[in-house]
């Protein structure tokens, strides 16, 4: 049999598989972010309602690591990140949905390195649009890409007379 006859069909199926694999990865990421959000919310709620201090996070980390051996993500440091993650975005109608569209490691980099919600939104949107890895994202943050973007915003096109525009 001549493979050339079947090549368009084979390519179509390959693309379908790749598209569905990507969709599955996105769904897993969204659910992981939702899980971390809910854990952070619950830690915050329990501390507020029951007056628990820092020790609850240490206890929870040990118990989760015992219950889910070999699963990463439940260290005390990461549980604190989950709590801070929830507190950082819980009152933002604009950013709360966006955090679910990028990876946990990118969310942490943005949360810990950006000063305000506008800066965070900029880096979330750019990460989502261009598929930045954590390393690329951090390089852009450290290069002050957001600040440079703001400095390049002008209203020359609106204020300059037509004959002076290049």
List keywords for this structure.
166 residues; mainly alpha; 0% strand; 2 domains; 9 helices; single chain
Can you tell me about this structure?
The protein has 166 residues and is mostly helical. It has 2 domains: 1-90, no CATH class; 93-166. It has 9 helices and no strands. α5 runs parallel beside α7. The longest helix has 48 residues, at 3-50. The radius of gyration is 22 Å and the shape is flat.
Which helices and strands appear, and what pairs or packs with what?
Elements: H1 3-50, H2 55-67, H3 76-89, H4 95-98, H5 104-113, H6 117-130, H7 134-142, H8 145-151, H9 156-159
Can you give me a brief rundown of this structure?
With 166 residues, the chain is mostly helical. It is built from nine helices and no strands.
Structural Rg: 22 Å
The percent range for strand residues is under 5%
* General form: flat
Assembly state (oligomeric): single chain
Number of domains: 2
Percentage of residues assigned to helices: over 70%
How is the main sheet built?
Answer: none
The ordered H/E elements are HHHHHHHHH
Q: What average pLDDT do the residues reach?
A: 92
Summed up, the helix count is 9
The rounded distance between the terminal residues' Cα atoms is 61 Å
Q: Based on DSSP secondary structure assignment, what is the total number of beta strands?
A: 0
Low-confidence stretches: none
- Secondary structural class: mainly alpha
